[in-house]
Known about the structure:
Elements: E1 3-6, H1 12-23, E2 27-32, H2 39-46, E3 52-56, H3 62-71, E4 79-82, H4 100-126, E5 132-136, H5 152-172, E6 178-182, H6 200-213, E7 222-223
Parallel strand pairs: 1-2, 1-4, 2-3, 4-5, 5-6, 6-7
Helix pairs in contact: 1-6, 4-5
NADPH dihydro-nicotinamide-adenine-dinucleotide phosphate (NDP) binds at residues 7-8, 10-14, 32-34, 58-60, 83-86, 109, 136, 138, 184, 186-187, 189-192, 196.
Family: Belongs to the short-chain dehydrogenases/reductases (SDR) family.
GO molecular function: oxidoreductase activity, acting on the CH-OH group of donors, NAD or NADP as acceptor
Pfam family, one: adh_short
Amino acid sequence: MPTLLITGANRGLGxxxxxxxxxxxxxxxxxxxxxxxxxxxxxxAAASGGKVSVHLLDVANNTQRQSLAAQFKGRPIDIxxxxxxxxxxxxxxxxxxxxxxxxxxxLRTNVIAPTLMMQDFAANVAMSDRKIIANMxxxxxxxxxxxxxxxxxxRSSKAALNMVSMSAARxxxxxxxxVVALHPGWVRTDMGGPNGELSVEESVxxxxxxxxxxxxxxxxxxxxxxxxxxxx
Length: 232
Ligand code: NDP
């Protein structure tokens, strides 16, 4: 059975992705930064008959990430899904309000951590059948789509994630690895809030469909929830 490694699997989109891939029979390496508090994820793992395992990973923690990579050395990973992300405080993202410390924390989580995850787990992906790396981006990271300004912190982090996704797509092509940046839609999670356009279930159905359809020819694409390409 294929294997998914997903970060931020304890709630929101990550939890539903873990649940749905497990339902499809995949082995799911579900990572989160506080396994002891991940009640729903632990329930999912307990009911999965061994398909879902829970692993400690704060994506911004180098020691934890490297320890996990050592633990899974030699194990094929069909999809590495860099899902974990933070928005930062929306109240300090307008022009004149931005502060460096919080901004750096968002960049560490949303850009640097997924890049280091790709570095540390590319060998696992390369030895799998499907060879896919999915980076959870956002249309808010599209420069072309930015007509309303503001949101400097979150926008810049996802724009940078898009750029590292493209570099990785180029660099990993010779290993047959497909790297895509995905927009999940505006989703009703803790981050998306109650007014989002999509339920978690609707978003995950579309994300899974898009990932099922990707081939090496799609590497380096920024894919909208309907499967179309988002301009950078
Ligand atoms: P949630 O806020 O519901 O969940 C975020 C997840 O990321 C949580 O599991 C959280 O863990 C985890 N996380 C945050 N920081 C870290 C870290 N340092 N190490 C490990 N895990 C971490 O958000 P969503 O489910 O909505 O978002 C998932 C992804 O989708 C994000 O990358 C987000 O930017 C992106 N996205 C979401 C949209 C939406 O409308 N919801 C729109 C566009 C993109 P913990 O519980 O420990 O905090």
